[in-house]
Amino acid sequence: MTVWTKLSRLKTAEALTARLGELEIDLPFDTEMQVGPASPLAQPLETGSGSIGNRFAILPMEGWDGTPAGLPTDLVRRRWKRFGQSGAKLIWGGEAVAVRPDGRANPKQLVSCDESTEALASLRTELVESHAERFGRTDDLVVGLQLTHSGRFANPQGQPSPRIAYRHPVLDARVGVISDEAILCDDELDALVEDFVAAGVRAGQAGFRFVDIKHCHGYLGHELLSAVNRPGRYGGSLEGRMRFLRSVVAGIRARVPKLGVGVRLSAFDFLPFRPGEGGVGSPEARSPGTRYFGADASGLSTDLAEVHEFLRALESLGIELVCTTAGSPYYNPHIQRPALFPPSDGYRPPEDPLVGVARQIRVTRELRSQHPGLTFVGSGYSYLQEWFAPVAQAVVRRGYADFVGVGRMALSYPELPADVLAGRKLQAKAFCRTFSDCTTAPRNGLVSGCYPIDPFYKRRPEAATLAARKKET
């Protein structure tokens, strides 16, 4: 079994360059960091949602620590305050918020409803106030809210309750779909459009500058993009598969015209993977008739022709903000969040995680080069650890992306953007090492957080429970 080189061992530019050569991949990085106002990462950018003061973005992550009613707890408020203290000037969604209770991916995910609007507004206010306290100004801070329905991966009561766009022979078996009753019919999707629009209205009332209509990671919006065999108004051609997004955008524009709209998009998807020999990820056999958005006929490489068409449609809709990501955490996480260590329900990486990072950067670069009217936020950087900042600076300086997204790293080291911009020595002990406990813990019913690195979670009683369950598996 191949053992991939730990990134922490690549301590020099020469060592990293040699490793990239061995892998035959291109990963841009700068050997000298610029600090202060001259840094590429410190440059402001004017967008339709407002002036954004630098090129760092905090990415939305799914929380497992709200109340059963979908309201924020002290743990949620702590996370949002830390996002505000990070120094990033773009907060892309805070975290995934379900537009109705049955759309939650877990029983403690936040929900947008009339009862939660005031609480979501308070979350945003606390984030902005924590940012002001540390950095003195907020006129260049833009905060959005990600709206979602988990679709195939809905689990609102602690057991799978999938609602799907179409039947899939491999994924159906994984979530327990046994009949067409799980398919959302066109009338149900019409009603769900109204739920998204209502959630957008509430987001505007709560003070958010934009909403993200989530189209990534195997959730409903993303699954609709591959519904080529679905009959009716929401399937078939790309126009039909985008009908849901177009309808949501039209509804939001009609009711809250000043609210910006963004899309977080899995710009490519691959076949589902499973643990194979030695626990290493192995692709499932290709099922006749299945499609993976942004993938070629093999299901294991990219084909971006339809993705470009999708982005042209976004431009025609006046959507400017696009956050690129890939795949799904449920069936091919190695392309979505490159990591050396798998979560408890995952598999060992079938490729060096650097390959996954480089793939996401390459795809975002290609998309941005052909769609200069869009503003791109890239993902997949946390695995880079000590090389995060050198790669981030090179990506922005070369115009491969407009913003660098901080995902899992924001749980272990939220101050990374501020430290990079100030030229302070980075805290190596705080780097996300992709141990995947932030996924393993929720998969075992525990609250989300960085248990290996964040002292706050190290001291919590769940840490001992998590350690015991990891030992068992």
Describe this structure in words.
By secondary structure, the protein is of the alpha/beta class. It has two domains: 29-432, Alpha-Beta Barrel (TIM Barrel); 435-473, no CATH class. 36% of the residues lie in helices and 11% in strands. It has helices at residues 13-23, 74-84, 117-135, 169-175, 186-205, 220-224, 238-241, 243-255, 305-316, 333-336, 353-370, 388-397, 409-412, 416-422, 437-443, 455-458, 461-472, and strands at 45-47, 50-52, 56-58, 90-91, 96-98, 142-148, 210-213, 260-266, 273-275, 281-283, 321-325, 375-378, 403-406. The strands form three sheets. An eight-stranded parallel β-barrel has the order 3-4-6-7-8-11-12-13, surrounded by four helices. Helix 2 packs parallel to helix 3 and helix 5 (186-205) runs parallel beside helix 8 (243-255).
Q: Mind telling me the CATH class of the largest domain? A: Alpha Beta
The structural domain count equals 2
- Coarse morphology: globular
How many DSSP-defined strands?
A: 13
The Cα radius of gyration reads 21 Å
Uncertain residue ranges = none
What is the overall number of helices?
17
Share of β-strand residues:
5-15%
Strand order of the largest sheet: 3-4-6-7-8-11-12-13
Q: Give me the CATH fold name of the largest domain.
A: TIM Barrel
Distance between the termini: 20 Å
So, the CATH homologous superfamily of the largest domain? Aldolase class I
Helix content: 25-40%
Short description:
The protein has 473 residues and is an alpha/beta fold.
Key features?
globular, alpha/beta, single chain, TIM Barrel, eight-stranded parallel barrel, 473 residues, two-stranded antiparallel sheet, 13 strands, 17 helices
